[in-house]
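Ops channel
N.P.: pipeline sanity check, posting one input/output pair.
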């Protein structure tokens, strides 16, 4: 077994690898950028090396700096995690050429599966079913249009070097093909430096099902069953589960057998995933499942496989990289129960899933039984704009699917994060969607019902009353009687919006300036209403709050200006995007304490609109 390991990654996956390495008594080395100097993975590793500025292209994506850090610290091996350089064949070769153990597949395997068209041809030659389509080198627009017509609309145009939903266009008819092709090629050239595309038949009700495979250097190769990753938003996975709903033993045997053939075709070593697309318009069937691509690394959703098999996949990676055979044979592996994973992101569904960055002043995860939290942050940490906004992966296990679903929902509902916004409430709603509950899922579910799922929940009256009572002195509650109607009502601000709350509970002796209300995975700040904190009237608050931390780049109104509903007030720049804030109703600019160039935090009061007197 290797004695020391450098982790060429950050966040929750770096912390997760450190956890297994520590159990195996392997010394760990972290690498970090300027933004990650106080990060959790830096704190947990035995040693840490600074590798550059905050942007990933100047730190985590610079292979030479990572190899130099391994040499400097005497690390025997490098684990790439996922993302960043994990599927970069050139980096893998550089690690091996430096005499360092590469915890991953052969560079040739990465290369073979790196381009979608070449990979599909290789799979077809190996007897793995592939989606009908065109994957050739001829790239003229007229030729590709002819191939699309042969395949039959609708079709998908996909960049051969694409991934993560980029470089992909759905084309419904021949009239739309030319524009979609040109757009796809532009995005592919910009994102991947390669504008070649392939065309494949679009599956109307697609399900995304993948198989975990694992090989060693002795020629042994096993699968660890399937995962269903069909619940997606804009081609990004949201909730994953294992096994797949509706998977019978015959279809599972055919699917996993195809995955083994795919892995053998590239002489695969280490952890990998064979991704398939299935026709979800009816029951799962082997003749309606096709190869999509192979990920030559550990997947984000690997914990659900660990939960149903009892295997530590990172331990297997380290043992195989050390030259050991696989710890278990195929006949030793079995499915035990059901597992689900939700990706908790720092983003605001109510504002179009805008990233939410800043300090995690409150970070609490639910503590349901049979659950696991993989995170790379801690309370008090900063969520940076430089990297993926994942806060944690929350994984729940149950005897069956319903138990796993309920436990995951309980964990998410009991989680509390502040002031950074999260998608926890969105995830809870998704878990409770009737189609998800019944297992009738496809990749379009969120697209169809996303508006309802993204709508923020409303705190219960009970939660608001309890919070409101804690803000007012006990003397305000004179005459309180158990089970009586509210003794009085008072005005408060709930995340900047004016609300009237009936008071029924006993108040605190110590009034405070604000209290958090946490429920259904959502957090709200309740504070006493003051005459100068919000406009009066029953038609709602005119408080204009910053949707995320950023820089005010334009102010288009002045104090006292009369404005109309929808009129542009000011613009904030955040995470390389401009966000325009508008008037919520006709009124007058009654408060404006901000100027262009100012840096603001999330939910900072920027302006206030008051309704005109009638």
């Amino acid at each position: 077994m290797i004695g020391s390991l450098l982790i060429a990654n950050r966040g929750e996956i770096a912390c997760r690898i450190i956890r297994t390495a520590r159990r195996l008594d392997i010394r760990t080395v972290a690498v970090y950028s300027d933004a990650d100097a106080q990060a959790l993975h830096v704190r947990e590793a035995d040693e840490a090396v600074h590798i550059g500025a905050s942007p990933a292209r100047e730190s985590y994506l610079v292979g030479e700096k990572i190899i130099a850090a391994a040499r400097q610290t005497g690390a025997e091996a490098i684990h790439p995690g996922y993302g960043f350089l994990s599927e970069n064949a050139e980096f893998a070769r550089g690690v091996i050429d430096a005499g360092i153990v590469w915890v991953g597949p052969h560079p040739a395997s990465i290369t073979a599966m790196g381009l979608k068209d070449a990979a599909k041809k290789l799979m077809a030659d190996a007897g793995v079913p592939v989606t009908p389509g065109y994957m050739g080198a001829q790239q003229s627009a007229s030729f590709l249009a002819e191939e699309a017509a042969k395949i039959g609309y609708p079709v998908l145009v996909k960049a051969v070097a694409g991934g993560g939903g980029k470089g992909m266009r759905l084309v419904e008819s021949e009239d739309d093909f030319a524009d979609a092709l040109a757009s796809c090629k532009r995005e592919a050239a910009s994102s991947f430096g390669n504008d070649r595309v392939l065309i494949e038949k679009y599956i109307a009700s697609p399900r995304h099902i993948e198989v975990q495979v694992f090989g060693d250097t002795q020629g042994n190769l096993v699968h660890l069953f399937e995962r269903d990753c069909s619940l997606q938003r804009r081609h990004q996975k949201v909730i994953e589960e294992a096994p797949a709903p509706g998977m019978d033993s015959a279809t599972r045997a055919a699917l996993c057998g195809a995955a083994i053939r795919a892995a053998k075709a590239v002489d695969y070593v280490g952890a990998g995933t064979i991704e398939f697309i299935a026709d979800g318009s009816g029951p799962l069937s082997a003749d309606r499942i096709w190869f999509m691509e192979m990920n030559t690394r550990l997947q984000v959703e690997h914990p659900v496989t660990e939960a149903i098999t009892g295997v530590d996949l990172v331990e297997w990676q380290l043992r195989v990289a050390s030259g050991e055979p696989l710890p278990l044979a195929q006949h030793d592996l079995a499915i035990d129960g059901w597992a689900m994973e939700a990706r908790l992101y720092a983003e605001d569904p109510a504002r179009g899933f805008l990233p939410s960055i800043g300090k995690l002043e409150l970070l609490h995860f639910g503590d349901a039984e049979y659950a696991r939290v993989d995170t790379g942050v801690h309370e008090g940490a900063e969520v940076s704009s430089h990297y993926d906004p994942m806060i944690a992966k929350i994984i729940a296990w149950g005897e069956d699917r319903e138990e796993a679903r309920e436990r995951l929902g309980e964990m998410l509902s009991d989680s509390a994060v502040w002031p950074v916004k999260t998608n926890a409430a969105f995830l809870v709603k998704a878990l409770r969607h009737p189609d998800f509950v019944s297992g009738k899922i496809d990749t379009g579910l969120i697209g169809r019902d996303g508006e309802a799922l993204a709508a923020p929940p409303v705190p219960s009256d009970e939660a608001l009353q309890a919070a409101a009572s804690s803000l007012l002195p006990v003397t305000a509650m004179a005459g309180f009687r158990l089970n009586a109607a509210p003794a009085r009502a008072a005005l408060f601000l709930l995340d900047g919006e004016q609300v009237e709350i009936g008071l029924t509970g006993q108040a605190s002796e110590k009034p405070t300036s604000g209290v958090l209300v946490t429920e259904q995975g959502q957090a709200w700040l309740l504070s006493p209403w003051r005459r100068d904190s919000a406009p009066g009237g029953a038609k709602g608050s005119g408080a204009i709050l910053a949707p995320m931390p950023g820089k005010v780049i334009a102010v288009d109104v002045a104090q006292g200006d009369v404005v109309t509903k929808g009129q542009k007030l000011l613009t904030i720049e955040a995470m390389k995007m401009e966000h325009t804030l508008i008037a919520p109703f006709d009124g007058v600019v009654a408060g404006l304490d901000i100027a262009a160039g100012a840096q603001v935090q999330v939910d900072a009061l920027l302006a206030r609109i008051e309704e005109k007197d009638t």
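N.P.: looks fine end to end. The radius of gyration is 27 Å.
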